[in-house]
Design brief:
Blueprint: H1 2-10, H2 21-24, H3 37-46, H4 54-57, H5 65-73, H6 77-85, H7 91-97, H8 104-107, H9 110-113, H10 119-133, E1 148-152, H11 156-167, E2 171-175, H12 184-187, H13 196-209, E3 212-214, H14 225-230, E4 235-238, E5 244-245, E6 258-260, H15 261-269, E7 288-292, H16 296-307, E8 312-316, H17 328-337, E9 340-342, E10 345-352, E11 358-371, E12 377-381, E13 387-390, E14 393-396, E15 400-401, H18 404-407, E16 435-437, H19 440-443, H20 448-468
Helix pairs in contact: 3-5, 5-6, 5-10, 6-10, 7-10, 11-20, 15-16, 16-17
The structure holds flavin-adenine dinucleotide (FAD) and iron/sulfur cluster.
Length: 470
C-alpha cells in the first residue's frame, strides 16, 4: 500500500495545454485549451483517496472531491459530473475561475511535499466532457407547488437560487438589469478566461427547466420589491452584486482616457468590443495602458488591453507581489503575455494635454512598513521618489462597492455602514419578511463559489419558508 502511494505521488502533475503567450495575447480565445482524456486519467490517478480528505475542507461548497476524481480515474466521466452537481451547479465555471490554490488544492496533502492534484482542471474536464456529450441524467423537477419566487440579478448567487428552487417545483423568475444574463461571469470576466457560451448554456439549461428570465429589468427602478410582492411573488432573493466602481480620488482623474475597470470590461465583454471589427463598440484602445490595482479585475483589464492592441500594458500596485490578490494563474498568464508590473507604486496624479486627454501618471515609490489591521505590511511613501509614467489609457481597478439603486430605494431593508445588505449568514434572511440576499451585495466583492454558496444557503431557507412557513 505504502509503495503504491509513493508511486502515485511521483507521477508529475499533468500540465494543462494552453495557447502560446505571444499568440494568445492578440486574440480572445480561451487560454487553457482543456485536458485530454488521457491526461485527465493520469491526473486523477495521482489522488491517493485520503480517508480524511483535506481538499473537501477547502471547498466552500464541500464537493466530494475524491469521489468525483475516483470516477474520472475509473473512466466514468458522466458519473463524475453527476457527483460534482450534487454540490456545485456551475462546475465548468468554477473549474476555470475558482482560486483553487487557496481552496481545495491549497489543502491537498500532495501539496505538502510536491504538487497538489489539479482538482480545478479535473472539474473543468468533467464539465466540458458533459457539455460535449450530454450523457448525464437530466435534473429532475418536483411537481408544481404554486409558489412564486423572484430572483433579482443573474450572477452566480441568483443562478444558484433559481436552479435550486425550480427543482423544488416553484415558479422562478430572474430579473436582470443588463440585456444578457450571467452577471460578472459575462460582463466582467473576459472570453479568454471564461467563454460566454459556457455561461449561456448553463442559463439555457435553467430556462429549459422552466426558469423565466426578464432582462433589461432594473429592480428598484422598473419595478420595486413591493410591486413584486403585489404581483404575487411569495419570496424574493436579492443577488445584485457589488458593481459600483471605486475611484482613486487623485487630481486629474476626470481626464479623457481614464475609466473604471467595470466600464472598460463591460464595453469589451458585454458590448462586444472584443469582437472588433464585427462589432465597432466605442472603447478607448490605448497604446500605453496602465491599470491601477492587482486583483482579478486588474489582471483581466490589463490582459484585455493587450488584446485590444496596446503596445504596453502595465499594472501599478501599491503593495508587493506577495500581496497580489489575483488568482496565481492569472498573474502568471499576465506576466507571460507581457504585462509589466510596477509594484510598491502609488498614483499621485494624472496629467493631460490641452485637449483634456490623459498623457501620463505621476507616481511615488513606496516601501513596506509595519503590518496593518489586515495583517499585510502597510506601504509607506518614499519621499522624493516621484516619477512619470507615460500612458494614454488608465484603468482603475481598485475595488467596487454596492450599487445603491435597489438597496436605497427599498424601505426597511437594513444596510451596513458601507451600504451592503445585512443578511443572516446561516439563512440569507434580510430585515424584510420574505426577502433574502446573498453574494457580493452582502459580503462585498468576493468569489464566484462564495456567491454560489450564499445562493444555496438562501435557497434552502426560502424552501423552508415556502413549505413550512419558517
Ligand atoms: P454578480 O455576478 O455581480 O451579478 C449581479 C447581477 O445583478 C448582475 O448581472 C447585475 O447586472 C444585476 N443587477 C444589479 N442590480 C440590479 C437591479 N437593480 N435589478 C436587476 N438586476 C440587477 N471570482 C472568482 O471566484 N474568480 C475569478 O477569477 C474572478 N474574476 C473576476 C473578474 C472580474 C472582472 C470581476 C468584476 C469579478 C471577478 N470575480 C472572480 C468575483 C466574482 O465574479 C463575484 O464575486 C461574483 O460574480 C458575485 O456574484 P453575485 O451573484 O453576487 O453578483
Ligand atoms: Fe486526493 Fe488531494 Fe483530496 Fe487527498 S487531499 S483526496 S490526494 S485531492
Amino acid at each position: 500500500m505504502a509503495e503504491k502511494k509513493v508511486k502515485k505521488e511521483k507521477t508529475p502533475r499533468q500540465l494543462m495545454p494552453e495557447q502560446e503567450a505571444s499568440i494568445r495575447a492578440k486574440n480572445f480565445d480561451e487560454v487553457p485549451t482543456g485536458q485530454s482524456e488521457e491526461t485527465a486519467l493520469i491526473e486523477a490517478s495521482r489522488c491517493i483517496q485520503c480517508k480524511k480528505p483535506a481538499c473537501i475542507d477547502g471547498c466552500p461548497v464541500s464537493v466530494d472531491i475524491p469521489g468525483f476524481i475516483k470516477l474520472i480515474r475509473d473512466g466514468d466521466f458522466t458519473g463524475a459530473i453527476s457527483k460534482i452537481w450534487e454540490k456545485n451547479g456551475l462546475p465548468a465555471v468554477c473549474g476555470r475561475v475558482c482560486p483553487q490554490e487557496l481552496q481545495c488544492e491549497g489543502k491537498c496533502v500532495l501539496g505538502v511535499k510536491g504538487e497538489p492534484v489539479a482538482i480545478g482542471n479535473l472539474e473543468r474536464f468533467a464539465a466540458d466532457y458533459e457539455r460535449k456529450n450530454r450523457k448525464a441524467p437530466k435534473l429532475e423537477k418536483k411537481p408544481l407547488t404554486g409558489k412564486r419566487v423572484s430572483v433579482v440579478g443573474s450572477g452566480p448567487s441568483g443562478l444558484t437560487v433559481a436552479s435550486d428552487l425550480i427543482q423544488k417545483g416553484h415558479e422562478v423568475t430572474i430579473f436582470e438589469a443588463f440585456h444578457k444574463p450571467g452577471g460578472v461571469l459575462v460582463y466582467g470576466i473576459p472570453e479568454f478566461r471564461l467563454p460566454k457560451e459556457i455561461v449561456f448554456s448553463e442559463v439555457a439549461g435553467l430556462e429549459k427547466l422552466g426558469v423565466k428570465l426578464e432582462c433589461n429589468s432594473v429592480v428598484g427602478r422598473t419595478v420595486s420589491l413591493e410591486e413584486l410582492f403585489e404581483e404575487g411573488y411569495d419570496a424574493i432573493f436579492i443577488g445584485v452584486g457589488a458593481g459600483l466602481p471605486t475611484f482613486l480620488r487623485v487630481p486629474g482623474e476626470n481626464l479623457i482616457g481614464i475609466m473604471s475597470a467595470n466600464e472598460y470590461l463591460t464595453r469589451s465583454n458585454l458590448m462586444k468590443a472584443y469582437l472588433y471589427p464585427k462589432y465597432d463598440t466605442p472603447i478607448i484602445r490605448g497604446k500605453n495602458v496602465i491599470t491601477l490595482g492587482a486583483g482579478n479585475v486588474a489582471m483581466d483589464a490589463a490582459r484585455t488591453a493587450l488584446r485590444l492592441g496596446a503596445e504596453t500594458s502595465r499594472i501599478v500596485y501599491r503593495r508587493s507581489m506577495q500581496e497580489v490578490p489575483a488568482r496565481a494563474a492569472e498573474v502568471h498568464h499576465a506576466e507571460e503575455e507581457g504585462v509589466e508590473f510596477y509594484f510598491l507604486t502609488s498614483p499621485v496624479k494624472f496629467n493631460g494635454n490641452e485637449k483634456g486627454r490623459l498623457t501620463s501618471m505621476t507616481g511615488l515609490k513606496m516601501e513596506l512598513g509595519e503590518p496593518d489591521d489586515s495583517g499585510r505590511r502597510r506601504p509607506v511613501l518614499i519621499e522624493g521618489s516621484e516619477f512619470d509614467l507615460e500612458c494614454d489609457l488608465a484603468i482603475i481597478a481598485v475595488g467596487a462597492g454596492p450599487n445603491p439603486l435597489l438597496t436605497q430605494s427599498t424601505e426597511g431593508l437594513e444596510l451596513n455602514k458601507w451600504g451592503y445588505v445585512v443578511a443572516d449568514s446561516k439563512t440569507g434572511k434580510t430585515s424584510i419578511k420574505g426577502v433574502w440576499a446573498g453574494g457580493d451585495i452582502v459580503t462585498g466583492s468576493a468569489t464566484v463559489i462564495l456567491a454560489m454558496g450564499a445562493g444555496r444557503v438562501a435557497a434552502d431557507s426560502i424552501q423552508k419558508y415556502l413549505e413550512l412557513g419558517i
